[in-house]
Please model this.
Amino acid sequence: MSAMQDEIVITTGARLHFGFFAHRTLAAGTAIPASAAAAGGLLEHNNYGGIGLMADCPAFIVAATKSDRDRVVCPDTSTQEHAWALASVERLVAQYRRACPADRQPPPCSIAVRRTIPSHCGLGSGTQLAMAVAQALALLSGDGQADAPTLARRVARGKRSAVGIHGFARGGFLVDGGKRSESEIGRLVARADVPDDWRLLLITPADSSGTGLSGQEEVEALEQLPGMPRALTERLCRLVLLEMLPALANADAEWFGEALSQFGRLVGDYFRPVQGGQYADRRMADLVDCLRSEGIRGVAQTSWGPTIAVCSPDEERARSIKDRVLADDRWKGCDVQVASPLNTGAAIQL
Model:
């Protein structure tokens, strides 16, 4: 599509991210810590990589129309989420205009944020909003051929994980192969549909909005961590290649869920020094233990938390778990929603 559009409506999903494959580069000649050497040494470069999947809710709905000047409209700027979205969109439009080639500049526009994803809860709000805004601006300017990495660069996304970037474009379960230089966008090395019958139970402490690490806080936290041992990276990769991807191909939710849970616990142990435990929120850690004691295997934290995701083979099972969680006084105040896997990219309505 090359013609300039008058109105664009973008509907995204939420991005669940279950952890990096690798972290931190050692300069040539740097001594490897004994603990890391014993575990098999360190990777030679800092490529991040990792896995995640897209869910249909919560979601952003962003509408963009040509206007006499740039403006951002939110239905209720008194709420924390809408105020955050308003400020973010203003910054994203300015960033896009700075980075976009002169011959592809979008016209002045009005952008309305009609629905939001909670910020900094592990649901990919920053990247999904940025990609939605970038996609809308590109289409308004007639630059409909710009791919997801190009759009991400224009709004300064992809400095670490690229799961949300590729998820915005394609949906499904995604394997980010990482990058060999800071300027690259992580490479999508595998993608699979998640069975449509499966459901994802997303559980977030109600008073924890905004507690997940992001931006400079995330950078500083990562700088505190030692290099990830090669043996850990290899174990994580084996779980994805030999467990999760075959489980998806066989539509085996129990197999996939157990591998996902193992992946999450291993990554959580690595991040323990900067997030305070295997999980970011103590209540969610207790809930994970409770669920697993009841035979519910597929439970993992998404990104820096505090949200945890529970993989379920069908709607009935997911709603049964939701009812049990909400009926327990220990988890009062949690926001619990049932999401479906999203196997397509963001929806674009012209």
